[in-house]
Amino acid sequence: MRIGLGRSDVTPRVGVELVGFGAFINRHSIGVRDRLWARAMAIELDGAPVVIVSCDLCVLYRETTEQVGALVEEATGVPAERVAVHCTHTHSGPGTGGPLIGWGEPDPPYVELLPGRIAAAAIDAVAALQPATLAHAEVACEGVGVNREYDEAPTLEEALRDDWRPARPELTDTTAHVLVARDESGQMIGFASYFGCHPVVCCAQTRYIHGDYAGVATNLIEREHPGAVGLFLQGAQGDVNTCVVHEPEPESMLALDVIAGRYARAVRAGLAAAEPVEVDRLESVRREVEFTRREFGLEDFEGLLAEQEAIIHAPGASDTDQGVRLATVKAIAYRRFMVALREGRPVTQPTIVQGVRVGPIGLYGAPFEIFQAIKNDVVEAAQAPVPVVMGLTNDEVGYAPDRTAAERGGYAADQVPLMTGTLPMAKIHDELVATLLELDAELFG
Question: How far are the Cα atoms of 93, 250, 370 from residue 153, in angstroms, in the given order?
Answer without folding.
Answer: 24, 19, 20
